[in-house]
């Protein structure tokens, strides 16, 4: 029976398993003695440093796109639940990645830079694991093994590493470690190793959307192949049950992919179109900048390795069928199964995104890089055409250098606008309802959802999340009060022209609706004295074209209303000087159909005579 200490990972006899900690330490000491391994390690370090510098210079603490769904749980407004973890983002359902983002959001107060660095760390560990894997399979290091850090830490991963934390950076690290297990036949060593491997495979399934589902099934190939060898009943039962659970989970998630009608126009209209796009997508791990110049010649980077692997596997099958060879290398067939699953992912991209020329975009690199990884490792394991993996490494190095200029230019464009959003929100001198109109698209959300962004900005500010973490409210070093905000429906007085009405595009899902003309007196509590600008988010469904506002009985200020334009912020530019305490905001509703959604008082720096600011700042510094 095959169990602990009898895995025969590389085709030869093995003795008892060494103590895990001591064995790992000795293995790394042995690797580090080799000059080629140290050279590859240096490439890995430079790749990590480049990505870290890119995060530091062009990253942002603000969420991006789907990451805004993390604000409510981080603020404690929405509880962590299974349904929330299983909420899809387009066709992608990745509960484990969501859970990781939730935990990191709790630890780092939703600072997305923390998530970017953790994602980079996961990818770096994954790349290092594969470098060690290739060395272990070959029995010695090769400079060609720099292929792994050059691909996994390619700058063209910028959307996964720098822009978007809720992507597949963490999943990439998990996948690389799982690939190492399959390539070195780790699960064949003992039942305990098998359970650990199956758990890791299930984690890949739950962390990388539909692509992860395909990969997880492919990773089970080494377990299925191992069942053909002599093994204990417990090992075979565990392998069968575990592989079935992984496959069933993957199948259920694939069958449960939600319909996205807005993606119907993206799909290929013919088999030929889907096949062409699938071939192009299978090269996505090289990065768009070089591929735009090298296509179609770049297709050799995947067609040649797959052809050589196919010939080698076909020859082995013929020898096994004729009785000239035994089925004695589960690692080889396991990697072949995984390679097949990675090609299925490119086929899915070819069908689902055939009409959209985005398959070489940065975000697809994480989905296609397993193709190159599996092909490289399989060629090393099969010991065929050593020059081809080395050529793949040289090509990867060329692509890294080719991709850096466009990566820097693109990330700089993202960063400049997001940096402006960070500054405006952190200073707090612009109403957040105005900031939502201006920066919603900058932060990866369609402008039609700006009402959601108002609520999210408010939650972040109230709970000191992301850019508001540790914020000291000041203007050029002079402290000013905190901005104040109220949902209008929470201020509706009894007996006035306003009533609370549900509204799906209002902040909080409700607004204050005027049922007729009249004056509504809203009570606002102001904790600190200061000079405040008033902003009201409203819309008119009736004949109202202007609105009159008055604070504490002062002469009213009339403001125009753009009818039928949806909710828009209306700002009183002249600040109100308010003392601490309760103040009355009188709103004259000229007609029925006026909806009030969100009211803000935004502190402004006090106006000063020339030279007064410098004197006040100097006095403050002396104190």
Automatic annotation (TrEMBL):
The chain crosses the membrane at residues 37-55, 114-134, 161-183, 195-225, 237-257, 294-313, 333-352, 387-404. Keywords: Membrane, Transmembrane, Transmembrane helix. Residues 1-21 are annotated as: Disordered. Residues 1-10 have a biased composition (Basic and acidic residues). This is Glycosyltransferase RgtA/B/C/D-like domain-containing protein. It comes from Tautonia plasticadhaerens. The lineage of its organism: Bacteria, Pseudomonadati, Planctomycetota, Planctomycetia, Isosphaerales.
């Amino acid at each position: 029976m095959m169990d602990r200490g009898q895995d025969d990972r590389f085709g030869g006899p093995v003795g008892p398993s060494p103590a895990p900690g001591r064995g790992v330490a000795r293995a790394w000491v042995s690797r580090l003695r080799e000059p080629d391994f140290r050279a590859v390690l240096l490439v890995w370090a430079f790749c990590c440093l480049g990505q870290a510098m890119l995060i530091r210079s062009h990253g942002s603490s603000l969420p991006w796109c789907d990451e805004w769904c993390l604000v409510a749980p981080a603020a404690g407004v929405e509880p962590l639940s299974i349904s929330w973890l299983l909420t899809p983002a387009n066709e992608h359902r990745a509960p484990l990645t969501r859970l990781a983002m939730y935990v990191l959001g709790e630890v780092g107060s939703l600072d997305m830079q923390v998530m970017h660095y953790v994602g980079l760390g996961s990818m770096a560990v994954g790349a290092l694991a594969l470098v060690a894997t290739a060395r272990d399979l070959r029995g010695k290091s090769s400079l060609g093994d720099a292929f792994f850090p050059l691909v996994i830490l390619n700058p063209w991963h910028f959307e996964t590493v720098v822009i978007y934390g809720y992507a597949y950076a963490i999943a990439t690290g998990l996948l690389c470690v799982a690939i190492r297990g399959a390539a070195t036949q780790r699960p064949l060593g003992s039942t305990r190793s098998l359970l650990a491997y199956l758990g890791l495979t299930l984690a890949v399934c739950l962390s990388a959307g539909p692509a992860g589902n395909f990969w997880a099934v492919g990773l089970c190939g080494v377990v299925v192949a191992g069942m053909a060898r002599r093994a204990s009943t417990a090992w075979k039962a565990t392998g069968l049950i575990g592989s079935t659970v992984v496959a069933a989970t993957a199948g259920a998630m694939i069958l449960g992919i939600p319909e996205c009608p807005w993606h119907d126009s993206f799909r290929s209209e013919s088999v030929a179109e889907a096949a062409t796009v699938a071939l192009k997508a299978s090269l996505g791990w090289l990065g768009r900048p070089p591929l735009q110049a090298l296509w179609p010649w770049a297709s050799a980077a995947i067609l040649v390795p797959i052809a050589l692997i196919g010939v080698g596997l076909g020859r082995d099958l013929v020898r096994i069928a004729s009785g000239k060879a035994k089925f004695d290398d589960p690692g080889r067939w396991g990697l072949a199964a995984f390679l097949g699953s990675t090609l299925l992912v490119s086929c899915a991209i070819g069908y689902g995104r055939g009409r959209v020329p985005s398959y070489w975009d940065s975000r697809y690199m994480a989905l296609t890089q397993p193709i190159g990884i599996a092909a490289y490792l399989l060629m090393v394991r099969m010991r065929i055409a050593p020059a081809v993996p080395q050529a793949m490494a040289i090509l990867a190095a060329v692509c890294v250098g080719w991709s850096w200029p466009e990566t820097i230019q693109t990330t700089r464009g993202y960063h400049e606008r997001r940096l402006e959003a960070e500054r405006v929100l952190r200073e707090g001198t612009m109403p957040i309802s105005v900031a939502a109109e201006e920066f919603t698209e900058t932060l990866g959300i369609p402008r039609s959802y700006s009402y959601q962004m108002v609520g999210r900005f408010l939650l972040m500010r109230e709970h000191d999340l992301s850019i508001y973490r540790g914020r000291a409210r000041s203007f050029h070093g002079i402290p000013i009060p905190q901005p104040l905000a109220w949902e209008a429906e929470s201020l509706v007085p009894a007996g006035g022209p306003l009533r609370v009405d549900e509204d799906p595009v209002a902040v909080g899902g409700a607004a204050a609706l005027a049922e007729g003309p009249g004056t509504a007196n809203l009570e606002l509590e102001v904790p600190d004295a200061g000079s405040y600008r008033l902003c009201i988010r409203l819309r008119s469904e009736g004949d109202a074209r202007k609105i009159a506002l008055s604070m504490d009985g002062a002469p009213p200020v009339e403001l125009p209303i753009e009818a039928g334009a949806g909710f828009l912020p209306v700002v009183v530019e002249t600040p109100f000087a308010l003392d601490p305490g309760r103040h009355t905001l009188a709103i004259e509703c000229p007609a029925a159909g006026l909806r009030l959604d969100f009211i803000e008082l935004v502190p402004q720096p006090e106006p000063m005579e020339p030279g007064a600011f410098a004197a006040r700042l100097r006095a403050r510094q002396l104190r």
